[in-house]
Amino acid sequence: MAAASSKDPWSLRGSVALVTGGSKGIGRAIVEEFLSQGAKVVTCARDVSELQGHPALGQLDGTAPKLVIVAADVSTSEGRGKALGATLDAHGRLDILVNNVGTNLRKASTEFTEEEYDALCATNQGSAFHLCRLSFQHLARSKGCVVNISSICGQTSDNTGVVYHMNKAAMDHMTRYLAVEWAEANVRVNAVAPWFIRTPLTEPILK
C-alpha cells in the first residue's frame, strides 16, 4: 500500500480503494473520508444515482480519476467481477478493499422464506467472502488491507432479524480467519462493528 506521509500518518494519498455500497449511509461516509485523505476511490452500488454529479467524478489525480462509480450488484458473480474489473482498469492496482454493502429484513425468524434467506446471505456474507478471495492476489502485491463493515449484531442480539445477525457473526469469524491466513502475505484484515448509526437502513427504527 502507498506509504503515508510522515507529516500526516493518516494520509491515503496514492492508495486505491474499492468500497462496496458507497452510494449512501456508512459507505458514502467512507467514500467521502477516503477522498479527503487523498485516496483514489472506486465504489459500487445497485443504484448509483445519488453519486451522479459528485464533484470528484470530474477530477484527476495525475492521470487517474479520483472517483469511479460502478452500477453493480456484488451479491452476484457478475457484479463482483464488474466492480473489481473497473478498479483494475482505472488504476491497475488495489490497496484497500472495504466490504460495506449490506441489507436487512426485520421480521420474526419463522417468517423468512428460503429466497429471502439466500438473498440476505448473498449480499451480506457472500459478497464479502468472494471479493476478498478475488482481491487477494492484488492486495498481496500491494501489501494492502481489507476492512469488513460488520455490526454489533455479530456479537449480540438487538432483535432486528436473525439472518442479518448470522451474516455479521460469519463476517467477524471470516475476518479473524483471513487475518491469520493472510498475515504471511502482508495483507491485513480487520472488521469494524458499529452499533446503530442513522442511515437509510436504520432510519425506520430510530424514529
From TrEMBL:
From the UniProt annotation, give the residues forming the signal peptide. Answer: none
User: Example GO molecular function term?
Assistant: oxidoreductase activity
What's one Pfam family the UniProt record gives for this protein?
adh_short
Q: Which UniProt keywords apply?
A: Oxidoreductase
PANTHER family in alphabetical order: NADP-DEPENDENT MANNITOL DEHYDROGENASE, TROPINONE REDUCTASE
Provide the family line.
Answer: Belongs to the short-chain dehydrogenases/reductases (SDR) family.
Q: What is this protein called?
A: Uncharacterized protein
Which organism is this entry from? Polarella glacialis (Dinoflagellate)
